[in-house]
Task: structure prediction
Amino acid sequence: MRAEIITIGDELLIGQVVDTNSAWMAERLNEAGITLHQITSVHDDREHILTAIDEALSRADIVFTTGGLGPTKDDITKNVLCEYFHTSLVENVQVREHIYALYKERPEAINRLTATQWLVPESATILTNRVGSAPIMVFEKYLGVQEFRSAEEFKSQKSKYLIALPGVPHEMKIAMTEQVLPYIGLKMQVDRIEKGDIIHRTILLSGVPESKLAILIEDWEAALPASIHLAYLPKDGMIRLRLSSYGESSKEDIQAQIDTLLPLIGDKVLSVSDPSDFSDMSDLSVLAGQLLKQRGVTIATAESCTGGRLAAALNAQSGASAYYMGSVVAYDNTVKTNVLGVSQETLNTFGAVSEYTVREMAEGVRALMHTDFAIATSGIAGPLGGTEDKPVGTVWIAWATADGTVAECFHFGAAREREQITMRAVTAALVRLIRILNAGKYHVEA
Result:
């Protein structure tokens, strides 16, 4: 089954809002065995929306729209869909009751604009948006014989579908998970491709440039069967190698290729995702959290230049309280000394951005929080503050355990933006933590 996504809203096209919905939806659709062929963004403009819908339905079996379903005048998607599918708005009692229940603690939110939300296209199937007022609308387009692409398509499918979703990310995600994907599976009978459907395996690597990696595995890559596709996905100093099969190879076929690849790059690998973990295991914070939980150990952080970003990464996952105890953001030196126990002599002699300072920070927060592990960061994120000896982009990171502490200096480059430097530091901190945890031992080797 082929799918397309149309995102609707002027805010997307002027850069005011970043479209995160499409990436999330693409992952979920792949998991469901639905191939996404195109993503289109359009203005809140009647002609633009009508053209995009018509073109998408000419190519795809199912089209998803997001956005433009609110109660204000600039939200025109619902009316345009009525025009396209030759239907009109009617009051829906179930939607009205849902909205009244949704706003029972805020009765002032019920007004003449809110009332437009329970007017829905008469020909659409309505699915409940549990956390919002804009209902999910499913339209079916019946095809004439001349509209089918092949005789096989005519035999297997008599219509196409458009599903209109809210644009608010948390509403869209809940709608897709609770309503849309089950609806697709039951009502439209998505046929899973034999031999394991769409299969993706992701190998997460660090410590090797993309070009060098390509050279290391070029013979292996050249020998890949045509049914298995390889993609290089570099991001934030990491590389994700994704192997994909669209119904042509089995899980065993892909695993055999991975088994051949790993001896070539084993020292660079952080994780190999299971097919059931389509995206999670290629996320450093998720991988670190899972390993901490599996080992039954705890961790704390002491941060200067990263300003709490490492803490945010470690506690981003549900259940993080099982392993993440807390953080001290010691940006000022008085916090380093008064809270973490860094000696004034160390600061006077070596400075805040030094091996000795981050070692004492890591050991101090580990003792303070009574944890098995601790990580500390201190650096110069810029654009000011650099010196000849310690230019912008210099970051020291320490990892402390019961068996010892190790520290490493990184140079992330003065040409990088402040945010890039801090996020590279977070990545480096997590990468080494994962390597320590993968080693299955609580001591580290310099």
